[in-house]
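dude i think i finally got it to work??
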Amino acid sequence: MTSRLLPGLWAGLDRLHGEMERLFDWGVEVPRPLVLAPTFPPLNIREDAEAFHLEADLPGLTEDQVQVSVTNRNQVTITGERKLDESLKGNWHRRERGFGKFQRTLKLPAPIDAEKVEAKLDNGVLRLTLPKAEEAKPRRISVKGE
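look at this
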């Protein structure tokens, strides 16, 4: 029962924090607890008969700042780093965009063919095509009569 209450409790605390920040907004950034930080990068995954298709939002990153790896035949890891532009001077009033290293590992429900994975980064969106291994693809079985 306790585990069902925790998500609601965290959501309530997050709302309270937002209201307090709005009420006392003096231009000072109040650090949020790490537990409430959103998962980065946000992504979508869909599946068809041939492959898994993953899209991850990585605004401002270039190809050399992102790495993709496949392990254990069904795990995909996206790693990278968004660096803070040190040339930006002045007083910060709000910093909601995260900076630093990130890593996200996903376990897919079927094995993939790592040799055929394609990755493209276009306009801040990483698109992965993760072809299923042959043994994971659906097979049509012909039914014979007597």
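The longest strand covers residues 75-82.
im so relieved honestly
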